[in-house]
Write a sequence for this structure.
């Protein structure tokens, strides 16, 4: 039976994301993995506290209360990926390890630099956002590219033919999010 997972690529417009964008020339520089189209169950590596870009690691993101809420002009693109029920089970099983050990995981800032040199820089328990999403997919048996997860950028998701675009625009204009805000 086919199920869907969702990849959110976003740009909050912060100084950190602007500096990454200057180098990458890509419109989005953050990747998250979600299990529903309302983005309730969404995971990534990023800011642990919305007002502190230096403290990063594994995060369960909440559009309504977290970093995104602090940056209401966030732009995004949302893709869906058809997967099997077994794939989702594998992904969620892997995520329980991240959730249970979230304090042990760090943001892989050196890995971001490695991508710019096309040289993977990996540390145990350390990921950057697109590396994390690619790693979860890869470890669940979903191969979208012929490269290591440590070299996957948010723009690679944008260019992936297996992903179907479902929305592009301001995050808070996305209909399922708008409905949540009106509650």
């Amino acid at each position: 039976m086919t199920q869907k997972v969702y990849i959110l690529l976003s740009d909050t417009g912060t100084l950190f994301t602007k500096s990454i964008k200057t180098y990458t020339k890509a419109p989005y520089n953050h990747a998250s993995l979600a299990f529903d189209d309302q983005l309730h169950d969404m995971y990534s590596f990023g800011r642990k506290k919305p007002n502190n870009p230096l403290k990063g690691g594994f995060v369960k993101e909440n559009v309504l209360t977290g970093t995104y809420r602090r940056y209401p002009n966030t732009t995004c693109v949302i893709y869906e990926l058809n997967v099997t029920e077994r794939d989702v089970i594998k992904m969620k099983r892997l995520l329980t390890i991240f959730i249970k050990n979230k304090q042990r995981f760090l943001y892989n800032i050196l890995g971001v630099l490695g991508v710019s040199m096309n040289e993977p820089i990996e540390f145990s328990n350390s990921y950057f956002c697109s590396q994390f999403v690619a790693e979860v997919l890869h470890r669940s048996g979903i191969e979208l590219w012929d490269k290591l997860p440590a070299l996957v950028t948010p723009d690679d998701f944008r260019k992936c033919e297996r992903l179907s675009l479902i929305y592009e625009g301001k995050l808070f204009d996305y209909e399922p999010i708008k409905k949540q805000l009106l509650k």
About this structure: The two ends are 32 Å apart (CA to CA). The beta strands are 2-11, 30-34, 42-49, 52-61, 75-84, 106-107, 126-127, 164-170. Residues 1 and 108 are 35 Å apart (CA to CA). The longest strand covers residues 2-11.
